[in-house]
Specification:
Number of strands of chain A: 19
Largest interface: A-B, 23 and 24 residues
Largest sheet of chain A: 4 strands, mixed
Oligomer: homodimer
Number of domains of chain A: 1
CATH topology of chain A: L-arginine/glycine Amidinotransferase, Chain A
Mean pLDDT of chain A: 97
Number of helices of chain A: 12
CATH architecture of chain A: 5-stranded Propeller
């Protein structure tokens, strides 16, 4: 029995834990739409299988999949990955999935945000998004977890929390008029405070250069643990990312969190620009209403878009000279976790990366 | 993690329990197809909601539903009914669902039979049936229960067991060449023995008159408890059902079960013939490939098609003089359960009844 609660997590003593806190598992969605994933989504399938396989070494993985793709996905996924039919419009579980919240008495619930495909009818990335928007409700039914409905357009990738009262986000995304045009900054902060139990919100102005999500924080900056963050970085002053990273660094190092701590900021040097090739564009269905992908487009590739599993860290790699330094840095930052790299070009070609296609379910 | 086992339940010490043994819950499928359910399936929806509501007073109910109908079903079902998206071709969970088997150590697994829509391309009731055939596999994933795949075309409604080694079925259905033309009676018995852990099979020649399932036993005869069965009955010698019931009565009273017991046979007098009206036919989509429904058709209405829940019995009613005698008889036969009637004309118009649209999950 799943019910929709009328109160808020903060009022009920529930909080969103940090991604580094213990998990019960991870949720993903099988890639399928051929107007986003090239060559019938077959190369993306391989990358998603590798990510699911890597995460499943550390925690349970549930893959959601359309009825059309159920048998194909079952045959391609390892048997330890649970496969559940759920209709969807694309495969960005971080953004369309629920946000789980827990309390100190072993309780778990979830928050179901509004979703408008990263900007709605005018600036969104596809239409329709009705099936994506139903996913948190379906996850509530599958898990038997009670649900809060928050009337705020928000994607999971636009926030990171330390689980101790602090949230980091970007103005570019959360204050974008294509999300909640009728809400003030203060009202949006009110939603975050009430539904995630945070007290302090650190606003960064912008996300990564050319990030089509309108600057999701999860590609730019994330928590390693309370008081410690990783930041996407470049020393190349000619790169449009340079100024964005400088600006974020200054803000982060000057900020204090909800506990009054200064933040420790670790730089992860970005890979060389990931540029879409003519061949890669050719394999994508050309339809109206979906954001087009063109030869020469630069994708927002960043090592910060990793997933923290129970005992592991799954990191996107780009066959780039900066891959190994990023892996080394993450091994330092997560001394008690195994750091696993997955070649992720086929995921970033779809517009996001490993963090964007995953959603953790915390252990209550 | 769900695996597909290469052995058989009998070899592994698993058996199918009787429906009267303790349950963990009940599975159903939301009615939808407008070439079987009249008026866009709206009257059937009401009946299914009433059945789900009645069962949910006694045990957990999970309703499966297509993506198209998810929101409508959620809004019409009471919140205690869990709703899970699963593609389907129609709503006969008894026949398309898995058969759960349990052992003495708290284990539960399921058997996934082949399904061909009650007779395949030539005599089956609709085409295609690909989504129905996937349902046991999806239930295995949802529940995390390991699965046996049995290469026998069989529907759950064609068998009843006492959980102590005896199975009752009909030759009309299980020996029908439209199910397993290449298997002998002995081979079919072998499948039943290996996958359900039964030793003794009681074969009745035919199921109820005009039953379009090719005579499923669950409309004619079922177990109340080991050694005790209910039988659909009529004293009207002009009724084609008369001879069928006589013949079954003789066989059942002369039979002994796996434990060497004689059976106690209780008669449930059938309702007056349920005849399809012109108005009822008019509301059904007319398409090729689906069995047609015509004014004057007699549906195979029987009180034996009830569902035994944990502490309850859910009985189909027809607004007929025999409703109350059937209810009274079942109250006598189930003194420790609450007997609940549900008006079921809209279900029998679709070709089955309450037992046909339910599938119990036993408690391990």
């Amino acid at each position: 029995m799943t019910i929709t609660l009328k109160s808020t997590p903060a009022a009920d003593g529930y909080r969103m834990p940090g991604e580094f806190e213990p998990h019960d598992g991870c949720w993903m969605i099988w890639p399928e739409r051929t107007d986003n994933w090239r060559m019938g989504a077959k190369p993306a399938e391989k990358a998603f299988v590798q990510v699911a396989e890597a995460i499943s070494r550390f925690e349970k993985v549930t893959m959601l999949v359309s009825g059309r793709q159920f048998v194909n996905a079952r045959n391609k996924l390892p048997s330890q990955v649970r496969l559940i039919e759920v209709s969807n419009n694309d495969s960005w579980m971080r953004d369309v999935g629920p946000t789980f919240v827990i309390n100190d008495q072993g309780g778990i619930r979830l928050v179901d945000w509004d979703f408008n495909a990263w900007g709605g009818l005018e600036e969104g990335l596809y239409f329709p998004w009705d099936q994506d928007d139903l996913i948190p409700r379906k996850v509530a039914e599958i898990t038997g977890v009670d649900r809060y409905k928050a009337s705020l357009v928000m994607e999971g990738g636009s926030i990171h929390v330390d689980g101790e009262g602090t949230l980091i986000t970007t103005e570019e995304c959360l204050l974008n008029p294509n999300r909640n045009p009728k809400l003030s900054r203060q009202q949006i902060e009110g939603f975050l405070k009430n539904y995630l139990s945070v007290e302090k919100i650190i606003w960064l102005p912008r996300g990564c250069y050319n990030d089509e999500t309108d600057g999701h924080v999860d590609n730019l900056c994330c928590y390693i643990r309370p008081g410690v963050v990783a930041l996407n970085w470049t020393d190349d002053q000619e790169d449009p990312q340079y100024e964005i990273s400088q600006e974020a660094y200054k803000l982060l190092t000057e900020a204090t969190d909800a506990k009054g701590r200064k933040l420790e900021v670790h730089k992860l040097h970005q890979p060389n620009p990931v540029i879409v090739t003519a061949e890669e564009c050719e394999g994508i269905d050309q339809v109206e209403g979906t954001i087009p992908r063109q030869e020469g487009d630069r994708m927002a590739a960043s090592y910060v878009n990793f997933y923290i599993a129970d005992g592991g860290v799954i990191v996107p790699l780009f066959n780039d000279p900066n891959d190994q330094p990023a892996m080394n840095k993450l091994k330092e930052l997560f001394p008690e976790r195994e750091v696993v790299g997955v070649y992720a070009r086929e995921i970033i070609l779809g517009g996001g990366n490993i963090h964007c296609i995953t959603q953790q379910q915390p252990k209550p």
